[in-house]
Structures are given as structure tokens and as C-alpha cells.
Amino acid sequence: WLCNHVEIQRKAIVSKITGGTFTAWTSDVGSAWGATPDVVVCDEFSHWTSQDWWGVTYSSYGKQGSMIIVGSNACKTGSWQIDLRESFKQDPAWYCSIPEGPAPWVSAQTLASQKAAIDYLEYQRVWLNKDSSTGNTFIGREYIERCIDPALTRQDIGSDHIPVYTVTVDY
């Protein structure tokens, strides 16, 4: 029944009634410049590998005052996506909704299975929507940074009978 109302093309769906067009873009930066869409939908933003692609996408949205919708789960700490998201949270032109915790339709059984099978920090990011570093990390970067006190200075006592301790953290 859908084919009575739309024409399905290679990279587009066109309404036979209104002429409205849905176009799916490939992430080819070179061929995307110059687009002037009415609505831009950016999905799985935290997984985008190219900041150049974001530049093309965002600049096309701005050309005619169209709408942009960015969907994402939590980001990897230190990523360009998290920096961008934080700047948009401060911009009154943007509406940001960042729910905490797992999606309500995800079962406790699924969460338990995922928690047992993938890296814990990745589990927190993908399933609990918490920004985090990734990898098999015993201590998260945010905890290590809390241990740094720039006010501390080296104390040379000069006594031979005071033991010297060295502590290192490899993360």
C-alpha cells in the first residue's frame, strides 16, 4: 500500500502527493557539501568517527533555518562529541534531554546479561547512559583525577633513616 503514496528511489523516498523527499545521506564528506535540507536527523551521534561529517551536517542544517535532531547515548569522556553536547546544553537555542539510567523497555535480565558480557565502563555508557571512558579499566579516569592535588609539593627531609616510598598508577 505504501507504493501507492511514495516512490522509492536509490537514496530517497518521494511522496507522490506532496513531492516531499526523504534522502538518506552516506557519510561521504566531499559530496555532501551544498545540501539544504528542511530536517536533519543525526542518529547514534556518540559513535560517529568523523568530526568532518558533523561539520558538513551541521552547516547544511544552518543554511535555511531547518530543524536538526541529534540522537545519542552517552559519550566517551574526552571525545569531541561530549564537548559539543556540553556546549549545546548551554545554548538556549537547543533543547537537550538526557535521561539517566537504562531505557524503560530494557528488561533486568537483558541488563544483567550485558553487564556480565561486556566491559563495565562500556556497559555504563551504552546501557546506563553514563559518560565514561572505555576499555578494560579498573579505575575510571574521573577517580584518578580526583586524586591529583596540584598544591602538593616535594618534601625533601634529608634524613637517612626515613624510608622513601614510590607509588605509580598505570591506567
Task: Describe the protein's architecture and organization.
The chain has 171 residues and is an alpha+beta fold. It has a three-stranded antiparallel beta sheet, with no helix packed on it. Helix 4 (108-117) packs antiparallel against helix 5. It has six helices and five strands. It has helices at residues 29-32, 51-62, 80-90, 108-117, 120-127, 141-146, and strands at residues 6-8, 12-15, 21-23, 39-42, 67-70.
Q: What is the spatial order of strands in the main beta sheet?
A: 1-2-3
* Global structural class: alpha+beta
Number of strands: 5
Overall average pLDDT: 81
- Name the poorly predicted regions: none
Oligomeric status: single chain
Strand content: 5-15%
Q: Which H/E pattern describes the elements? A: EEEHEHEHHHH
Query: How far is it from the N-terminal to the C-terminal residue, by CA?
Result: 57 Å
Rounded radius of gyration (Å): 24 Å
Helix content: 25-40%
Number of helices: 6
Shape: elongated
Q: The biggest beta sheet, please?
A: 3 strands, antiparallel
